[in-house]
Write a structure and sequence with these properties.
The complex is a heterodimer of chains A (about 375) and B (about 260).
Chain A (H helix, E strand, L loop, with lengths): L10 E6 L2 E8 L17 E10 L1 H16 L5 E3 L3 H12 L14 H38 L6 H11 L4 H23 L8 H39 L2 H7 L4 H40 L3 H11 L2 H27 L5 H33 L2
Parallel strand pairs in A: 2-3, 3-4
Antiparallel strand pairs in A: 1-2
Helix pairs in contact in A: 1-2, 3-8, 4-8, 5-6, 5-8, 6-8, 6-10, 6-11, 8-10, 10-11
Chain B lengths: L6 E10 L2 E11 L4 E6 L5 H8 L7 E6 L2 E2 L5 H8 L2 E4 L11 H12 L4 H14 L16 H12 L6 E5 L7 H18 L2 E5 L3 H7 L2 E6 L2 E6 L1 H5 L4 H8 L1 H11 L4
Parallel strand pairs in B: 3-8, 3-9, 6-7, 7-8
Antiparallel strand pairs in B: 1-2, 1-4, 4-5, 9-10
Helix pairs in contact in B: 3-4, 3-5, 4-5, 6-7, 7-10
Classes of the chains: A alpha/beta (about 375), B alpha/beta (about 260).
């Protein structure tokens, strides 16, 4: 059996008066050496000269037998050792069923069907998300009535994770946005000699939109994905099921603290982003336009309505709710395999960022109607 | 040929930190036999398996498979060696992103240049050989039961027609009927494919039913190797407890009655 002692893998075959004599080694690497047509009219295969035969080799013989049987002739295999005969017999028992269904080509109708399925899947998911939101809100209301049910330690832990640890990245991001706005804005406004309006540009865009929107996007990428991954891996290891059997409600224990911490922390992070963005803008205005910090401050206070700031802050808890709900929902949807964890984590980030932007657009319309 | 064991382990030493798992372990596995490796938890059965297949670098000792050292070989030699054995891990260790058939195709795809249809046919034969139904081929591992995952893992282990298969607790977690069926399957395929089987197990029924010899790991080495009858005569406390305990007696009596 020691293969290393044998010559290189070779298969020999010669036809000798209706008998195809195989010699050498009939293996998975050698069966393709033999032409399909070779020895077509041989009615007997003599395998007694074979040094070695594996499953693929046995398949080759059985396949030939089946091909011949279709043409009405019988192929006899002679000279097999008992081990080889047993292998041939095992393979013959496990051959694919003769009438394998043909794979259908992909038609227009299939395309429509796939599209329809996607639409219904999307619709079902929207319904599930809304019902999950309802479940979380109901649990929150229950906690309001029985505050002792709130996992305070967990909330504080998540505040630390979501809020405090994110301060450096959020502050830096907002600072750079302020710098970029001031730089680009001053280049345009200088053409009209209206440099000083750069203060309004920075203040309104950062306070009203960019500060909170970009913070929400960073938090969705940072914490939303972490929610999905953490809850998803717990789901994979049946921890969630274990909780349920112990009478613990996963929504109370896992979802509510995360959503609550996010709703507390996102406005705080948004505020930090606002301040940091204004500082960046002020610094760049000073360097680029010579608008001193004192002038920047006076103009900021006198010309910018406090509503700009309020609009941004009002949006924060809603963005937080969207990120938290989607992150936890996708986590609970994770199935048995590691692949679904990865897929749903990325889906969670994409969906929550998308929904945050949709929400922002709805808020713009709303605030335009109420006139602030 | 009998003088050249298929697997030859001499003076194996493995340590994890200060914890010594094996201290001067010797073991021979003969060609074409089914050897059952038993031992208490933490005696390093799986560690021994991992050392032999090269997943773990031992601290000292020699491991030869087909007379070729596993430890100091070139990459090419090791690759060639690896083609001649298959490993089935405890829970199958199937690739979760591939279907059962693709899992079995994976080693063929990697190591051979076959036509797609031929490869699919051969993989299909392997899947049927281990007794999985036709509709299991296109399923993903997460959609299979534990027993089916083990079968699929076995199919992948024999995909390349290896000469040795290493099975890590193949019957653990299976119901008695499934475990007995798996034992029969191992025996059948061992006969049909001429396999040498290295079986890590706790299942006394498997030991009775299919193992030609049994190696007992205790006290950081192979305490004894021999047939079931020889094991029963050994006077070491753990071995005695293992082969004479209530479960062992039950397995022995059922084996004696020819039920298994």
């Amino acid at each position: 059996m020691a293969r290393s002692g044998l010559p290189p893998k070779r298969l020999g075959a010669l036809v000798d008066g209706g008998v195809l004599r195989l010699s050498g080694r009939l293996l998975i690497d050698t069966i393709e050496q033999l032409d399909q047509d070779f020895g077509q009219d041989a009615s007997r295969f003599d395998v007694s000269q074979l040094q070695q035969m594996d499953t693929a080799g046995a398949w080759f013989l059985v396949d030939r037998q089946i091909q011949m049987a279709k043409q009405g002739t019988v192929l006899e295999i002679i000279g097999a050792t008992s081990a080889q005969a047993q292998l041939i017999e095992t393979v013959a028992r496990n051959m694919p069923p003769p009438d394998q269904p043909e794979t259908k080509p992909f038609t227009i109708a299939d395309r429509f069907e796939a599209f329809g399925q996607k639409v219904t899947r999307g619709w079902r998911m929207a319904v599930e998300l809304i019902s999950f939101l309802g479940q979380v809100v109901a649990t929150l209301a229950g906690i309001l009535r029985h505050p002792s049910r709130l996992r305070l330690t967990s909330v504080v832990h998540h505040c630390q994770e979501i809020g405090v640890s994110a301060v450096p990245i959020v502050a830096l991001m907002a600072f750079l946005i302020g710098v970029v706005l001031a730089f680009q804005g001053s280049a345009q406004l200088r053409q009209f000699g209206a440099e000083v309006f750069v203060v309004d540009l920075i203040a309104i865009s950062i306070l009203r939109e960019l500060g909170i929107l970009l913070t929400a996007i960073i938090v969705a990428g940072r914490s939303g994905s972490a929610f999905t991954a953490a809850i998803g891996s717990m789901k994979m290891r049946e921890e969630i099921d274990a909780m349920r059997t112990l009478g613990l409600d996963p929504v109370t224990i896992l979802v509510v603290p995360r959503v609550l911490a996010l709703m507390l922390m996102l406005p705080a992070l948004g505020f930090i982003a606002d301040i940091s963005g204004l500082i960046g803008g002020a610094l760049m205005s000073w360097i680029e336009l010579g608008v001193s910090p004192a002038v920047f401050q006076t103009r900021l206070v006198s010309n910018t309505d406090v509503w700009h700031f309020s609009v941004g802050m009002i949006k924060a808890p809603f963005f937080a709710l969207i990120i938290g709900i989607i992150g936890c929902y996708e986590g609970l949807k994770v199935g048995g395999n590691a692949e679904s964890l990865g897929r749903l984590t990325s889906a969670s980030v994409v969906l929550s960022i998308f929904m945050v932007i949709v929400m922002d657009a709805l808020f713009s319309i709303f605030f335009a109607i109420v006139g602030v | 040929m009998k003088d050249n064991p298929t697997i030859r382990v001499r003076g194996l030493v493995t340590r994890f930190g200060t914890h010594t798992v094996h201290e001067g372990l010797d073991l021979d596995v003969r060609q074409g036999e089914i050897i059952g490796v038993v031992g208490g938890s933490g005696t390093g059965k799986s560690v021994l398996l991992r050392a032999i297949v090269g997943l773990l670098e031992p601290n000292a000792g020699q491991i030869e498979v087909f007379g070729q050292s596993v430890r100091d070989t070139s990459d090419a030699e090791h690759r060639a060696l690896r083609r001649r054995w298959g490993v089935m891990f405890q829970d199958g260790a199937l690739f979760s992103s591939l279907t059962v058939r693709q899992n079995v195709e994976a080693p063929m795809r990697e190591q051979l240049d076959l036509e797609d249809t031929l490869r699919e046919t051969l993989a299909g034969i392997k899947v049927r050989m281990v007794g999985l139904p036709e509709n299991a081929m296109a399923k993903y591992p997460s959609e299979l039961s534990g027993g089916m995952r083990k079968r699929a893992g076995f199919a992948r282990a024999i995909a390349m027609d290896p000469e040795i298969v290493f099975l890590d607790e193949p019957t653990a977690g299976l119901d008695p009927i499934g475990a007995a069926a798996f034992d029969t399957l191992i025996k059948q395929l061992q006969a049909a494919l001429g396999l040498t089987v290295f079986l890590v197990t706790h299942d006394l029924d498997s030991l009775h039913a299919i193992c030609d010899r049994i190696a007992v790991l205790a006290d950081r080495k192979v305490l004894a190797v021999g047939t079931m009858e020889e094991m029963l005569a050994i006077d070491h406390p753990w071995v005695h407890e293992y082969f004479h305990g209530p479960r062992a007696r039950a397995a022995l009596s059922s084996a004696g009655k020819g039920i298994v």
